[in-house]
Specification:
mainly beta, Rieske Iron-sulfur Protein, four-stranded antiparallel sheet, three-stranded antiparallel sheet
Length: about 140
């Protein structure tokens, strides 16, 4: 599995996306309410640029004539034919068992700020139950 650093998490605020080319594939990275997801930028319907589509919510209804909008910003609508996909899973909204787009794992990892020499001594830091722990 290849790792690709695509930028700083702080540069991709909630509700925004970044489309990049990784290993020859166009991939969209999304910040959905502070969580990061990546999708292949190719709609499974007819190959449209899915990640350039509109971010929408999900219309849900318990009875005819009444609906509520939920999951705002968690659904991507293809700009070609309006097929909709769950950004978190890649599954199509209309037929989630048969149609989906490829998803990729996204992690936020600590990095060395620009301008800091690579040979500077560092220590791993983690947060456990609200306590800041330095591992030496």
């Amino acid at each position: 599995m290849n790792r690709h650093v695509v930028g700083k998490a702080a540069d991709l605020p909630p509700g925004e996306r970044l489309v990049v080319t990784l290993d020859g594939r166009s991939v969209g990275i999304f910040n959905v309410h502070g969580a990061y997801y990546a999708l292949l930028n190719r709609c499974s319907h007819q190959g449209g640029p899915l990640c350039l589509g509109t971010l929408v919510g999900l219309a849900e209804s318990n009875q005819p004539g009444e609906y509520t909008m939920t999951r705002q910003g968690e659904i991507i609508r293809c700009p070609w034919h309006a097929w909709e996909f769950d950004i978190r899973t890649g599954k199509a909204i209309l037929d989630p068992h048969r149609s989906r787009v490829k998803t990729y794992q996204v992690t936020v990892e600590p990095g060395v700020p620009a301008g800091v020499p690579a040979d500077v001594e560092t220590y791993a830091v983690s947060v456990e139950s609200g306590l800041l722990v330095v591992h030496m």
